[in-house]
Amino acid sequence: MSDARYRERQWRDRYAPHVAPINQLVDELGTRDEAGHPPYVAPMYRGVHARGLVILRDPGPKAGGDKGSGFLSVENDDQTAQRQDEFFRGAGIDPVDVVPWNAYPWYINRKPSRDQLIQGTEPLRRLIELMPELCVVILEGNDAKAGWTLFLSRHGSWIRSRGIEAVATYHPSRQALQHPDPVERERREEHIRSTLRRACTMMTAGERPVAEDANPRIQAMTRE
Q1: Residues 39, 26: contact at Cβ < 8 Å?
Q2: Percent of the chain at pLDDT above 90?
């Protein structure tokens, strides 16, 4: 997205048929004046045809805000986007197959409150409605996991009826993975890699994870 020509192409194609329903939803969310306009899903993704959905916390400054690209994309000019791309590719996932989203889709650049996570559940429901081939949701970070738990309290039976599963791991940013013990840092990164490998298998072969915690729809995140 640091390349003006690339960014212009993405902007020109933001209403291409495969992403138009999603980005029209984003436009509707942008009518909330107090919250601003969320970043679009870049047309580089498969959009409504994707089998994967990755949920993080909130849009970062390279996506939202006055200086952001205006898109959720692994092509954004920041380290987290680059690391996300590397983690996906290392697990055998083409990043374009996984639509990016956030537990709180509006730009705030800070930890969302519980009320804000609740506000994010209805946009998430509408997004999932637009993705008929969705089979796996990847939750990256504790806020994404908390938002998904709130979402399931409202829409769990619907998600179960569609056979959608969720796996949870750490946020891919360096800050989320930092720890004074290098062994622990590596363990956290390996947790991301193994979780994404599992998601890749589910996306390509239709496998479903075995629940590891009290919530049957979330593969348990290894706790610190």
Answers
A1: yes
A2: 79
Tell me, rounded to whole angstroms, the distance of Cα 9 from its chain centroid.
23
Q: How large is the greatest C-alpha to C-alpha distance in the chain, in angstroms?
A: 48
Amino acid identity for residue 32 in this structure: R
Sorted by sequence, the CB contacts under 8 Å of residue 127 that are 6+ apart come out as: 22, 25, 53, 99, 101
pLDDT one-digit tens code per residue, 54-85: 999 999 988 988 889 999 999 999 999 999 99
Beta bridge partners of 101: 55
Side chain identity at residue 202, one-letter code: M
Q: Using CB atoms within 10 A of its CB, is residue 30 exposed (0-12), middle (13-18) or buried (19+)?
A: middle
What's the token pair of residue 9?
Answer: 């192409």
Residue-wise DSSP of 150-182: HHHHHHHHHHHHHT-EEEEE--SSHHHH--SSH
Which CATH superfamily is 4-219 part of? Uracil-DNA glycosylase-like domain (3.40.470.10)
The reported pTM is 0.89
Q: Alpha-carbon distance 39 to 33, whole Å?
A: 14
Question: Dihedrals φ, ψ of 32, to 5°?
Answer: -80, 95
